[in-house]
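[job 4471] stage=fold_predict status=RUNNING
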Amino acid sequence: MTILLWLAFICSFTGHYFITLWMPTVLTDDGFSDAQANSAMGLFQFGGAIGSFLIAFLLDKLGIRVVALTFLVTAPIVAALGLHTSYGVLLPHMLIAGLGVLGGQIGLNALAGTIYPTYMRAMGAGWGLGIGRIGSLAGPILGGYLLAMGIPRPTCWFSPRSRSFAAPSRFTRCISPSVPGMSAAARCRSPRVANSPIEQRRNRL
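[job 4471] inference complete, writing structure tokens
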């Protein structure tokens, strides 16, 4: 479970930083001005803010399958960012992409806090976020190599993003409760939680 979580974080951060650091350059090379590129990236971040609240709400109501669905739906949306479009089409597209990319990342962060027993929850989530930063280094490097190789932009945009979203989506599907309506926290309860050092001290009091 921990290895899957780490892979999910690495892949998610790879796609996140691939877009964040290379999209402004791609937009300016596509003929947009610096101001237009900055405005588009501002909407991308604003979409992430909206997505954070939306995914958190849906995660609480519908369960962890929302995170998997978010990553699956976002992959083709982000791939379409590599297509040449007008500025009027680009802006709402960037807003929706930010909602899925950054909102899905926030959902994954919240999910990390539900799969571990209480006494090791902070350490498990912290290690996942720390290991995931490997992706924040790999994303810009991968983007630079792909663009330098002259790969067509739609292909370049879709290839790393589809793979980066595959791991988080599969991870959340693997730990999704088999019984409808069961929460992630309920699924993760185990005898180990009940026998944790904290629980033992509480039982002695």
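[job 4471] summary: The domain at 2-204 is CATH 1.20.1250.20 (Growth Hormone; Chain: A;).
[job 4471] exit 0
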